[in-house]
Amino acid sequence: MSGKIKLLAPGPIKFPFIKEGLKYYLNKLEPLTKIEFFFPKIKHLTSSKQERLDKEKKILEKFISSKDFLIVLDERGEFLKINELVSLFEKIWQNSYNICFLVGGPEGLSEDLKKQAHKLLSLSSLTLNHEVVLLVLAEAIYRSLSILKGFPYHRD
After folding, report:
1. Where are the alpha helices (DSSP H) in the chain?
2. Where would a tag sit more exposed on the chain, N or C end, judged by fewer CB atoms within 10 A?
3. How far apart, in whole angstroms, are the C-alpha atoms of residue 141 and residue 43?
4. What is the pTM of this model?
5. What confidence tens digit (pLDDT) does each residue in 109-128 have?
6. CA dist 50 → 47, 56, 107 (Å)
7. Looking at residue 43, what is its pLDDT?
8. For the chain, what is the largest distance between any 2 Cα atoms, rounded to a whole number of angstroms?
9. Could you give the CA distance from residue 114 to residue 42 in angstroms, rounded to a whole number?
10. Per residue in 23-82, pLDDT tens?
């Protein structure tokens, strides 16, 4: 059982090692589920933080569907163990939703986008660069799907 997964974040991705790592995980994930990465280029021509967040919100919302279970990555979100993430995937897909993970940019995300989330999730209590978060998240998704498919990747 699996459904579609989207990874969404403001782009473009700047660090070459992140691009390489995301490509690595995309190749590993494609046989397991339909997965798409969306990193729309967002120019910050406005002066205030709120104006930048509002502009990002308008662009990012174009990639979020009503069929998506929206999971926003946020430092104040819930911490899940890997088996809890696997259970969450199963529950979401049983209810015929796709999964959209949304990661904010350097400024974070607008409060309006966070309020739209079905779940707030945190990967660490540390503040991490948003591109690093994408790579850690891609690994967590791969690990979760490996568990779901019965692959020997994860060790308890």
Report:
1. 16-29, 49-61, 82-94, 111-116, 130-149
2. C
3. 29
4. 0.93
5. 999 999 999 999 999 988 89
6. 9, 10, 9
7. 78
8. 50
9. 19
10. 999 999 999 999 999 999 987 666 788 888 998 999 999 999 999 999 999 988 999 999
Q: Quick one: residue 121, left, alpha or beta (phi over 0 = left, psi -120 to 50 = alpha)?
A: beta
The CA distances from residue 141 to 8, 17, 31, 96, in Å, are 14, 19, 13, 18
Closest to 114 (Cα-Cα) out of 46, 63, 57 = 57
Residues 6+ apart with CB under 8 A from 132: 18
Q: Which pair of structure tokens corresponds to residue 106?
A: 């350097």
Sign, CA dihedral 66-69-72-73, equals: negative
- Is 80 or 152 the better-scoring residue by pLDDT? 80
C-alpha pair distances (Å), 153 with each of 30, 63, 123, 147: 16, 31, 20, 7
CATH number of the domain at 5-149, please? 3.40.1280.10
Residues comprising the chain, all counted = 156
Decide which of 87 and 154 is more confident.
87
Tokens of 117: 């989330």
